[in-house]
Amino acid sequence: xxxxxxxxxxxxxxxxxxxxxxxxxxxxWREARRERQIDGTLGPPAPDPSDNAK
Length: 54
Hints:
By secondary structure, the chain is an all-alpha fold. The protein has one helix at about 5-40. The chain is rod-shaped, with a radius of gyration of 22 Å.
């Protein structure tokens, strides 16, 4: 393999990894935003009764 081929593969893999990180970040942001909207509409979730066992 030539240097250009290795450099191209490296750039491709770096771009693919960056795309994955970006995609997971967008999914996490959308999920958090959705939870905030639900909490804003319905209020915060009720406390878990198993926490007050003793």
